[in-house]
Specification:
alpha+beta; three-stranded mixed β-sheet; 3 strands; 19% strand
């Protein structure tokens, strides 16, 4: 299975949807910020590993605490994912902080500031 095959794209989107629900509803770690969203998932073609890209709306301290909480909850989240999805292998989860949404909002504000000056 190639990395960008139709099957891999479907698995990525399904894992993303399920991980969003697991983080929102089932992980009870107080370190995980309530404004945490899954922005993307990359599952390897052999289904052994998955990078879960997470965006946290909050301060740098909130982001650090959320990443700690998610890393500690990775095995629990993997078990929940195994119950929800029928895959041959349940991928080992790695959480990665994604700042792209924050970067986009910041750029949008800068563009608006420049437009108002003119």
């Amino acid at each position: 299975m190639k990395k960008n095959s139709v099957k891999n794209v479907r698995i990525n989107s399904e894992v993303q949807r399920e991980m969003s629900q697991i983080i929102r509803d089932e992980i009870k770690d107080p370190r995980v910020h309530p404004m945490t969203s899954v922005t993307g998932v990359e599952v390897t073609p052999d289904l052994k590993y998955a990078k879960v890209f997470v965006s946290v709306l909050g301060s740098e301290e909130d982001k650090e605490k959320t990443m700690e909480g998610l890393k500690k909850s990775a095995s629990f989240a993997r078990g929940q994912l195994a119950r929800k999805m029928n895959l041959r292998y349940t991928p080992e989860l790695t959480f990665v902080l994604d700042n792209s949404i924050e970067y986009g909002v910041n750029m949008s504000k800068r563009i608006d500031e420049i437009n108002h000056r003119q």
